[in-house]
Structures are given as structure tokens and as C-alpha cells.
Amino acid sequence: MGPLFPQELLSSEYNLLIGFLIGIAFGFLLEASGFTNTRKLAGIFYGYDATVIKVFFSASITALLGMFFLHYLGMIDITATFFPKTYWIPTLVGAAIMGLGFVVGGFCPGTSLSAAVTGKIDAMVFIGGVMIGIFGFIFSFKLWAGLRSSGNMGKVNITEWLGINEGIFIFIFVVIAILTFIGFQKWQDKWKDKLTQEDIDDLGL
Amino acid sequence: MKNTNRNFYINPYLGGVFIGLLIVVAYYFSGEGLGSSGGFRDMAIGAIDTVAPNYAENNAFVSPHVGDGKSPTHTWLVYELLGVIFGAILSAAIFGRLKFTIGKAPHITNKKRLIYALIGGLIWGVGASLGRGCTSGLVMSGIAVNSLSGYIGLVGIFGFGFIFAYIFKGIWIKKIK
Fold first, then answer.
1. Which of B61, B143, B157 is closest, CB to CB, to A63?
2. Measuring CA to CA, which residue among A39, A44, A203 is closest to residue A122?
3. Shortest Cα distance from A101 to chain B (angstroms)?
4. H/E element holding A182?
5. CB-CB neighbors (< 8 A) of A87 in chain B
6. Chain A positions in Cβ-Cβ contact with residue B124 (cut-off 8 Å)
7. B109-149 pLDDT, tens per residue?
8. Where are the domains of chain A?
9. I need a labelling partner for A83 at 20 to 30 A (CA). Which of A153, B121, B154, B167 fits?
10. What mean pLDDT is predicted for residues A29-49?
11. Which helix (H) or strand (E) holds B167?
């Protein structure tokens, strides 16, 4: 029964090797899906490219369903996995800050790494910015410590928090995702008439 | 000569499904979700621990990660990010996209784009440190186990993203018709 490493069914070396192999596949998929193209990423916010929403929500639904069935079949003990605690205040504030960073910088950390190593100079500069931001946060941590540990709700499962059945919640989430796919696809199609052929080629639409 | 593979991307739904499966595999074997900013954090902590170990032990953010027998950069997330580097290069090589370029909207100068990229990265560094993860570790991996934090991150990053996108639309599009 999984997870293997936390229950000492897998050695530390193999665990890191698996991390490395999963990383290879992750990096490959990010690049192959077009996530190193900053204009494709920014397209989500203006509607001219729906790639981000398609990849992101497909990944989330797949992971959610996969974990649900593994758990249901008794193949994984979710309590032994990385289950992030919810600190709702700093997470909401941090998410707002990240939303701003996404629009201004045109990447998120994972996509920037894939883009930087494949030659995108703007992504290399972005990573420089990320490191400055992290070092700055660490060096001024006294200022942030109170906010960062505020709103601690412990480990919260959203379905327990909402008080609804897990299966029904996942079903609703999948329906919302499909409606989002349809909506964003329509938005992207509207843009196609306005974009030049060069733009469409560049974006790979 | 035009390289015909340059703009070929895999089907986004397929890409997403495979990334989702990777998250499940990561949880099953390692009990970890995919992450990105956490790996950057580990590298920063490793650098501080090497240069100024005394400071590292006294900084409340850094101290849990360092000390006797702890190696802050010998983590699952750092190895995963090393893999991301190889995987991205492999894909870009296959599709003919390994090239030095600056990605930006056509009407923006290179200089402007690089300044925005630097500022945007800096903002991410602060936001991910405060919010305990980024789009990968906080949101995708959080949603996978139905953690409330993942959904707060999802709504926050994209919700505020749309608001800021409207304010800063000049960076990406000329004008909304």
C-alpha cells in the first residue's frame, strides 16, 4: 500500500531517483504542451489562448480522480502523504501576489525553469527575480512571520469542510472544468479573426 | 528554412492527463506532490546554509531545514527540478525549439519585457514563500488530495490574475477591441 517512501518501503536513493524521473516527464510535458511560450501562458487572461486552462484542469481532474480511486481501492494511505496544512490568510494573500506576478512576469516557477533551460532569456531573468524574491523574503522573515502563520486551520479536506460527499464534490468539479473548457474555447475562437497569421503561428493555435 | 515542428504542441488535454498521472505516481511512490517553488526555496536555503551557517540556524524560516544531518538541497523537490531541466530540453530538442529568444508580445521592447520578467519573478518569490507553494505544489498537488489550501490558491491566483490582467493588459495585448 502506498505511499511507499513514507512507510519505508522504498529507499531514500530510489525515492530521489523517482523524483528525478518524474521531473523529466514533468519537464517534457510542460515544454511539449507549450508552457515555455510566455504568450501562450498569458493568453489565459485575455482569452486568445486556452492552453493553460486545458492542461491545468485536465491535470487537476486526473490527479483528483486518480487519488480518489487509489484511496477507494485501499491502495494509498492519504494521511501518510504530503497533505498541506491550510493557512488561509497567507495563502490567499500569497495567491493574490502570485496572480500579479503571473501577469507581470508571464511565467510561474515551474514553467520558467522549463523555458529558461530551453533558451528563453526572459525566463532566465524571471528565475533571477524569483531567487531575489525568495532571498528577500528569508532575510526579512521577521516582518512576515506573523502573517505567514496566521489563519492556521490545520489539515483541512475541502469536502469535509463543505460537508458534502467526496464523490459528489469531484463530480461537480469535473462538470465545472468541462464548462470552463467550453467557455475558454469559444473565447479563443473569437480571437482567431483578430490575430494576424504570424501571431497564430507564433502561438501555435 | 522553416522548421515545421517548431509550433507543434501536444494536445493540451492529453498533456494535462499525463501531468495528472505523474502527480498520482509521485504521491504513490514518494508521498510527494509535484512542486516547483519549493525546489527553488531549497536551493536558496542551501546557499544560505553554506555561506552563513550561523545565520541559517537563527533564521526562523531557514532553521527547520538545516542543522545536524540535514542536507537542505538533497531533497525530493530539488531532484525533481533537475529532472524538469532534462525533460524540457529533451522535448525542445525533439520539437526543434532549442533557441535563444525573448518571449513577449510584439509591441513590447526587449528591455521592457526583461524588466517585467525580473519584477514578476521577484513578486512570485515573495508570494510563493508567503503562500506556501506555487501553481504546482500549492494548487495542483493540493487539489489532488482535496486540500482546502489548493482551492484557495486556485481561486486566488487565477481570480486576482484576471483582475491584474485587466489593469496590466498593455504588457500582453495592444488594446481590447
1. B143
2. A39
3. 4
4. helix A166-192
5. 132, 149
6. 97-98, 101-102, 105, 107-109, 126, 129-130, 133
7. 999 999 999 999 999 999 999 999 999 999 999 999 999 99
8. 1-80+159-205, 84-154
9. B121
10. 96
11. helix B148-167
